[in-house]
Amino acid sequence: MKHASPPTTVGIISRKDVPSLHHINIKGKKHNLGVLKDLRKHDYLASFIPDHARLSISWVGLKPDEVLNPHQHPTASMIIVCEGEGEIMGDCNQSLKAGDIAAIPPHNKHGFIGRGKKGFWGLSIQFEGLGLYEDRKAPRVQFAAPNGQFVERRVADSQKDYELLLKDQHHYEKLYKRSSLLKLLKSSAIQDYQVQERLLEVLNYWGDWFQRILFTRAAQGHKSNFQDVAEDHLREEVGHNKNLLMARGNKPVQLWDPLLEGCAAWFYEQMACASYAERTVLVHFVLEGSGDIFHNEAAKIFTNNEHFKHHSAVEEDHFAMGCHLLKSVSPQTLKSLRRTLRQGWQMMTILCNRMAYIAKRGVS
After folding, report:
1. DSSP code at position 118
2. 3-state class of 110 per DSSP?
């Protein structure tokens, strides 16, 4: 169990005291891992390593001639050989010795063999999401079949899980259309001038947060397809909160609401600590998906407002940007993204229901 708060005194942790994992079961098949010691499985270290950093570190060890069969995973991984000798195989075949670092990009096939008189010990490091075996019921790896083939199966499984993700998206969109905010746009109450003014102000409040969310997403990445899309999306969205402010006659946003603040801050925090794929789901599926539905309806009310005309035309394209990226991720990642999608839509619905309440009644 994780400590309630980080330790305040120096701790010396022996490698032997970190719990060991020797095998993993995937789809009923047992795979040898040698020895894997996930540092987050030790109580003291679990408290010491901050969750928001989402750095995953494990000791890994193989005895002489012991084999960790070729596998792949959706996240970059680094193996630092600390002692002994080994060999990497798969897309790269090379001997390893103490001091060597194997930097493995996502989806590269790789396995290891212990060599020499003692095999080797190393550190396995991942930089986003859970550790590869942190959730032992749903490990983030896929091992090769006996014939060495598994790319074709991964593609087929990815397509199936991607379709399930889209099915979930359509379900949440239908639920969102019944939210208080969408009901307000279709009610007679929206014809009230004061309701419209309060709605525009609360949208400007959210628009300011949305800009921060997109800037944080782009600032947290490194060169990848995900990063390219994050930067392209930011370029297309930057300054839209100012456009809405001008459309409101440059009236300052004066409202503040704890529920709005909490929901917006949740999305903001995810851009700093979630994986690339999770950020993509939250931005393109949830934020842009809900925005597309909302702006199509709002454009019917605010007919002379260029902000709504523009957004009702482009947000479907922004959703497609996310679809393009997620088609290529692994089945394991897609399965975990369904949970992220559900959480994102729950938060977005709470946010929009609160927007509707404030538009109709103001901030108490």
Report:
1. E
2. strand
**pTM of the entire structure?**
0.60
Q: Give the count of alpha carbons within 13 A of 34, CB side only.
A: 27
Domains of the chain: 15-148 (2.60.120.10), 154-361 (1.20.910.10)
At 105-164, the pLDDT tens digits run: 888 889 999 999 999 999 998 877 778 888 888 887 878 766 555 444 444 556 788 899
Contact 341, 285 (CB under 8 A): yes
In angstroms, the Cα distances linking 352 to 58, 277, 329 are: 41, 24, 30
Please tell me the total number of residues recorded for the chain in this structure. Answer: 364
CA distance linking residue 34 with residue 22, whole number of Å: 5
What is the spatial distance between Cα 21 and Cα 31, in angstroms, rounded to a whole number?
Answer: 11
Q: How far apart are CA 190 and CA 200, in angstroms?
A: 11
**For the chain, what is the radius of gyration of the CA atoms?**
24
